[in-house]
Amino acid sequence: MTSASSGTTDVVVVGAGFSGLYLLHRLRQMGLHARLLEKGSGVGGTWYWNRYPGARCDIESFDYCYSFSDELVREWVWSERYATQPEILRYLEHVADRFDLNRLITFDTTAEAASFDQNAGTWTVTTDTGEQITARYLVLATGNLSLTNRPDFDGLDSFTGQWFHTGTWPHEPVDFTGQSVAVIGTGSSGIQSIPKIAQQAEHLYVLQRTPNYSMPARNRAVTAEEMSSIVVNFPSRRRACENSDAGTPLPPATQRAVEVTAEQRRAKYDEGWERGGISALSGAFTDMFGDEVANGYAQDYAREQIRSLVTDPQIADMLSPSHDIGTKRTCTDIDYYQTYNRDNVDLINVRANPISHITPTGIALHDGVIEVDSIVFATGFDAITGALADIDIRGRADVPLSAAWANGARAYLGLQVVGFPNMFLITGPTSPSVLSNMAISIEQHVDWVVDCLAYMRDNGHATIEPTNTAQDEWMRHVTELANATLYPRAHSWYVGTNMDGRERAFTIYIAGCGPYREECDQVVADGYRGFEFDATSTEGTSA
Ligand code: NAP
For a disulfide at 387, which of 23, 142, 206, 218, Cβ 3.0-4.6 Å? Predict the structure, then answer.
């Protein structure tokens, strides 16, 4: 810890991922001074930390990128349909260099606390290096999947091998050659890393509590011709993403699964399975998330595919999920199911035979012990609110955000929280966030926030905060939409129940990117409907 120091600026941004970088660019264009605090030693956010083998995007590369710069769109050549973690990280590092953003970022620095001074109308952010920065605005670009969840198994301290979490993977390569390895968890991170680790390790134990649905990625190289055509058509492709539900350019489904014949359904599922990708089945029919019968048809199809890919029928059965498809995040994979046909891979059902504790040389289950050299925790994240709750944020009257959210996260449009003036969330709870292509949602949120700051400056407003009425009404709307779907039924990080003791709450705006964008634009057109401005001061805080 260095000695305490202090400074002022217009905006403090926390987090140098996709959101933070674009924020810095836009804030500077607008003539505002900004400081960005980043825990890591480099930019990238999710793509800086998640370096596990097999990590790659599950949205097509050309849609999982920025659109704000035509030059950037033209310059950057994606090499694969689904970019790997190193390629996405290189892209974000390129963006930081190209737009000269690094000098606005303080790396290796964690924002530990942020408090609002009601009289001055400013935020003061305290870092783990002892610095205090005062600013008019605070923007939390901390990501939805940042704070890792590692179950607190007894005995881990005594383990003499190495253990890893997929979400904080080491920077230097990890070599499992000749080792016996256990992977705990079969969400997206497990499903991507398991095939890779199986190829390297002498033996792999997969400890599965709940099987998940995974769609074939059908990943492939992007040809030069394809890339050129994508660049030429990028504006219209992007508009299609922005106006869609999920933030992707796929045409929306037009039929209900329950209204077509079994043959027609099968043809649609076959088409999706052949195309691959996260929406292979979920994009086929309109009633997928609203009708359990329709969802059941897709489930049956997915389980049939698993049986056809996995040689041992008992293992296929263990790998077959039973929840509503898509209500836990659907995974995409490269040879995940086929990995269980290898002789060096064992699947263990830790729901039936739970993990008891870690021993110095392995994992003790209620029934038996697995001897391993390394343990990989693919156990996910304290999602959506975790990274926000990790900062001691205090708003008006010193009220902690944790108290304001004691009964679940509340926000207006996922952008602001009552009692926390001038604090903005990027892809926060109650926005489409993790049910959308994050690159699309992030650009929209950053644009909205920066345009709002410009509006405040032009109109002499010092603070902005949602009204209680607007926040309550938005929460009611978000909940009502969600309750009309199957989403809230699952046990998953979407509803927070992956964390011990967490109340079940579904805080994602389910109507999707297009309707959400329209609502945000309409709020602005209506004179920032639902927000209150306080015109006490127009002075900036920095020189
Ligand atoms: P996750 O989906 O939350 O999966 C965590 C896994 O760990 C689950 O299988 C869970 O089982 C298991 N688990 C947790 N605690 C356990 C315990 N005590 N004992 C045994 N098993 C335990 O986490 P994730 O795989 O890291 O993925 C999180 C999200 O990150 C994804 O859904 C996706 O949105 C994003 N992501 C995206 C990509 C991509 O773009 N391709 C890649 C990785 C991650 P239960 O299901 O029983 O709780």
Answer: 142
